[in-house]
Amino acid sequence: NLRVKIKMTLEEVAEGVKKKIKVNKLVNAQGVTFKNCQTCNGTGRITRVQQTFIGAMQTQTTCHSCQGAGKMIDSKPADADAQGLKRQEEVIEIDIPAGVEEGMQLSVTGKGNAGPFNGIPGDLIVLIEETEHPELKRDGENLHYEAFVNFVDAVIGESIEVPTVSGKVKIKVDPGTQSG
């Protein structure tokens, strides 16, 4: 698996967004050929039989030559590692739903690092980081805004302008509104 962090604004969190990100991940190199391991004959295990005074005892261990893969690289390009992988930058589009929260993790199946020896690729784990809004504070699904209303407007009532995620709106302060 591969893990990345994405910073999101409050507006993006409220509406959901498609983001394109660049990730530097392991991919299968072109031109890699494999052969069966000669030590374990492609099984990935070595079986040993020992004779004891009560009979034969059989044990199996992971093959030390191929580390249990059963395959070995026959030939590879110079930029590939011992498992036939190389680092490459890729642009991935991620569809992030509305309402995600700070610290939430999303999983994108099959977009992580490639598996060794042409194995199954891992997942891309996306960690959400929410950037702080200059005026609004988030509390779960609620947004808070602290408005300062002078004493006269609070007593007789007044319309004030308040910022929201989608723009400014006017709300009515009822006559006799108390502080807080």
Would you kindly provide a written description of the structure presented here, covering whatever features stand out?
- This protein is mainly beta and 180 residues long.
- The strands form six sheets. A three-stranded mixed beta sheet has the order 1-9-8. Strands 2-7 form a two-stranded antiparallel sheet.
- The mean pLDDT is 90.
Outline, from the CA principal axes? elongated
Q: Helical percent range?
A: under 10%
Number of strands: 13
Cα radius of gyration in angstroms: 30 Å
Beta percentage is over 45%
**CA distance, first residue to last residue:** 48 Å
> What does the oligomeric state look like here?
single chain
Output the strand order for the largest sheet. Answer: 1-9-8
Biggest beta-sheet profile:
3 strands, mixed
Features:
180 residues, 13 strands, 48% strand, 7% helix, three-stranded mixed beta sheet, mainly beta, two-stranded antiparallel sheet
Quick overview of this protein structure:
This protein has 180 residues and is mainly β.
Secondary-structure map:
Layout: E1 2-8, H1 10-15, E2 17-28, E3 33-36, E4 45-52, E5 55-62, E6 71-75, E7 85-96, E8 105-108, E9 124-130, E10 137-139, E11 142-144, H2 151-156, E12 158-164, E13 167-173
Parallel strand pairs: 1-9
Antiparallel strand pairs: 2-7, 3-6, 4-5, 8-9, 10-11, 12-13
